């Protein structure tokens, strides 16, 4: 029996939201390269609400392990991006004072958005966006992340989306995207992403060198 045969991949339900939030607060925050490289280590309230805004879109996936009583051991938050989402985010941010950690992390994704503009390039009105991937450290190396991304791509196609995208901040997530036939259309080197003084903003572990945007066309 394969090591992942016991793990169930399914759509997240409202009952999973607290477990997903716990995953964000613990293993995702510590191990995602941009989050882990920021000087402020704890996820902030605006950041939590932003991530959970996507998690609650009814398109996210979870991995649960029956051998651990159905414990959630991984998640992939997803949503169908349209320009309306930008207004949802703006409305959320208006509720909070400026947040240094959130603004800094989002700045590199905003640069990626400006330099790719998927809606315009692919002449579509929506994109199936794979948003945040987290796997419990005790369950890594068992292809859970691969299975979550694979399921999400299948779901995107079944929903009639013409393209799916994912921004990979780590070497490992980029490897998953490549293995599943996604194409890297743009990348930003962390060494080149600097502040007004020319200092590198993000300095994750050396294996993580770029933010890469991958796309799958159906």
From TrEMBL:
The keyword Transferase applies. Residues 7-206 form the N-acetyltransferase domain. It catalyses: dopamine + hexadecanoyl-CoA = N-hexadecanoyl-dopamine + CoA + H(+); serotonin + hexadecanoyl-CoA = N-hexadecanoyl-serotonin + CoA + H(+); serotonin + octadecanoyl-CoA = N-octadecanoyl-serotonin + CoA + H(+); serotonin + acetyl-CoA = N-acetylserotonin + CoA + H(+). Transmembrane segments: none annotated. InterPro entries: Acyl_CoA_acyltransferase (IPR016181), GNAT_dom (IPR000182). It comes from the Eukaryota. Pathway: Aromatic compound metabolism; melatonin biosynthesis; melatonin from serotonin: step 1/2. Signal peptide: none annotated. Keywords: Acyltransferase, Transferase. PROSITE patterns: GNAT (PS51186). Belongs to the acetyltransferase family. AANAT subfamily. This is aralkylamine N-acetyltransferase. It comes from Hermetia illucens. The lineage of its organism: Eukaryota, Metazoa, Ecdysozoa, Arthropoda, Hexapoda.
């Amino acid at each position: 029996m394969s090591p992942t045969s016991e793990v169930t991949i399914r759509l997240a339900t409202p009952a999973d939201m607290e477990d997903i939030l716990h995953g964000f607060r613990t293993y995702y925050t510590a191990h995602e390269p941009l989050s882990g490289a920021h000087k402020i280590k704890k996820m902030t309230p605006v950041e939590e609400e932003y991530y959970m805004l996507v998690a609650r879109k009814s398109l996210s996936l979870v991995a649960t392990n029956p051998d651990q009583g159905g414990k959630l051991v991984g998640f992939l938050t997803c949503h169908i991006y349209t320009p309306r989402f930008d207004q949802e985010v703006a409305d959320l941010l208006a509720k909070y004072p400026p947040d240094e950690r959130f603004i800094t992390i989002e700045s590199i994704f905003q640069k990626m958005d400006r330099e790719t503009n998927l809606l315009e390039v692919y002449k579509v009105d929506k994109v199936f966006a794979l948003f945040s991937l987290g796997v419990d450290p005790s369950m890594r190396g068992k292809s859970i992340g691969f299975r979550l991304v694979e399921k999400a791509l299948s779901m995107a196609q079944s929903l009639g989306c013409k393209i799916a995208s994912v921004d990979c901040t780590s070497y490992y997530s980029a490897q998953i995207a490549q293995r599943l036939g996604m194409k890297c259309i743009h990348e930003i080197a962390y060494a080149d992403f600097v502040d007004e003084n020319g200092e590198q903003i993000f300095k994750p572990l050396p294996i993580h060198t770029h933010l890469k945007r991958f796309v799958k066309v159906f």
